[in-house]
Amino acid sequence: MHDIRIGFIGAGNMASSILGGLIGRGQAPASLLASDLDTGKLEALAAQTGIVAASNEQIAQQADVIVLAVKPQVMAPVCAALAESLGSRRPLIVSIAAGITIAALERWFGTEAALVRCMPNTPALVGSGASGLFANPQVSADQRAIADQLLGAVGIALWVESEGDIDAVTALSGSGPAYFFLMMEAMQDSAVKLGLPADVAKALTYQTALGAAQLAAASDESTSQLRRNVTSPNGTTERAIHHFEAGGLRELVDGALKAAHARSIELAGEI
What we know:
Layout: E1 6-9, H1 13-24, E2 32-35, H2 39-49, E3 52-53, H3 56-62, E4 65-68, H4 75-86, E5 92-95, H5 102-109, E6 114-119, E7 129-135, H6 141-152, E8 155-159, H7 165-174, H8 176-193, H9 198-218, H10 223-230, H11 236-246, H12 249-270
Parallel strand pairs: 1-2, 1-4, 2-3, 4-5, 5-6, 7-8
Antiparallel strand pairs: 6-7
Helix pairs in contact: 3-4, 4-5, 7-12, 8-9
């Protein structure tokens, strides 16, 4: 991927994190272009990283891969102008904007365009993201590999079989960090009520969440088995787990993901 030029339309937090990840993996900063309405922010990013501050038109004329990283509400006019600047060029176009469907992108860029729709999440900002990707039939195997490396620079990137699966990805990993933050918030509050200082409760909660995730990722055992491993009969963990189960935790989680999934579908319709 080092011999291609990648352009970012929009240089916000997610785009900046991907740019940083690519540079960290050896991509030459001079091969990375970015544009943004906030020219001050863009110039600061260029000075910090060595990337090229460019216009949308320059990116359309020079980039082999174009990453759409603007807000969904302004995507239509941005893409219409970009398509005009592209002319007959056919770069790979990767959208990381929520709710923007392949059909919408094809309206703006044409059905012959190679398009990838991606749903990243905010842990990408610290290199621990989880992204779901879907490609239209015009995307070649080489272009899929490029998209893999692009999103893989900030975490894991997994392909889904249908575009509808992106709504499930949104409900699970796209919104998922907030679910864990809520759980961590509740654990800290409870620990303080039990007498721990707030800073101690915070540190222990963060490390426990991090350790549990790392242990699960490194283990060949299922999360169910890992839970059983730490749940001694008649012990403290078992008492807490029984309380969660009696309170309908599984049903709450199931309902929450279904609600997020439904809203993801609604948002695509609204946009």
